[in-house]
Design goal:
Radius of gyration: 16 Å
Strand content: 15-25%
Bound molecules: adenosine-5'-diphosphate, adenosine monophosphate
Shape: globular
Largest sheet: 5 strands, parallel
Number of strands: 8
Length: 213
């Protein structure tokens, strides 16, 4: 199963990806997580990407496409994958199509989690992420069992540097101007499914599993 989770920053893609990993036993490929790992490791790519991420801007396509090309070639992707936060521009979507064509594989579904902008700010400012596995929680809407401790790997939960009211605005702008045009791209491909991402986490999971079965 080759899946893509689509939606604005904070729509719930990472949260729902965790359920798909367990159900289908396929890896989540989050370009945001890969970039944050590169920043932690202080690689040249990470240091270059950081400037864009801190301002809530998209990292250049060439960097992102290079990351995905390498990641999809890894052996754990041979039975499928869940793309999370990629593609975000038309150039990235076109590069992905070309890459998948060369690999002789198809995209099965693009699942869009629809959440209006008014709800996004509260989701992002209350988000807590695992410093180790990247799992996402919310202080109010989706709290971890133990405060500041990850349910999955027991590591510490932190606040992402870009999760503040100022960057949310530029991230939403980037979403509407550069990413939303992909709705048309994947609708034309016949793989685009829209879900109501404002429901409770468990309700969204149910809708997603139904849509895939
Ligand atoms: P994305 O990966 O799309 O950026 P996340 O999965 O990290 O978004 O979710 C953003 C924030 O919203 C997190 O704090 C998460 O716990 C919370 N969240 C996710 N899904 C829901 C939901 N259905 N209802 C309320 N809060 C949610
Ligand atoms: P995310 O973890 O998906 O919220 O992404 C965090 C930040 O990483 C974004 O605001 C961008 O700066 C950068 N980023 C992640 N994925 C991409 C992508 N596909 N294209 C461009 N920038 C990206």
């Amino acid at each position: 199963m080759n899946l893509m989770l689509f939606g604005a920053p904070g729509a719930g893609k990472g949260t729902q990806a965790k359920f798909l990993i367990e159900k289908y036993n396929i890896p989540q490929i989050s370009t945001g997580d890969i970039l944050r790992a590169a920043i932690t490791d202080k690689t040249d790519m990470g240091m270059e990407a950081k400037k864009f991420m801190d301002e809530g801007k998209l990292v250049p396509d060439s960097t992102i496409i290079g990351i995905i090309k390498d990641r999809l070639a890894e052996t754990d992707c041979k039975n499928g994958f869940i793309l999370d936060g990629f593609p975000r521009t038309l150039a990235q979507a076109e590069a992905l199509s070309e890459l998948m064509k060369n690999m002789n594989i198809n995209l099965d579904k693009v699942i869009s989690l629809n959440v209006p902008d008014e709800l996004i700010v509260g989701r992002i400012t209350g988000r807590r992420v695992c410093s180790k596995c990247g799992a996402s929680f919310h202080v109010e809407f989706n709290p971890s069992k133990e405060e500041n401790v990850c349910d999955y790997c027991a590591s510490e939960l932190i606040i992402r540097k870009d999760d503040n009211a100022q960057t949310v605005k530029s991230r939403l702008d980037a979403y509407h101007t550069q990413t939303a045009p992909l709705i048309d791209f994947y609708t034309k491909m016949g793989v685009f499914i829209e879900l109501d991402g404002t429901k409770d986490v468990s309700e969204v999971t149910k809708d997603m599993i139904n849509a895939l079965s």
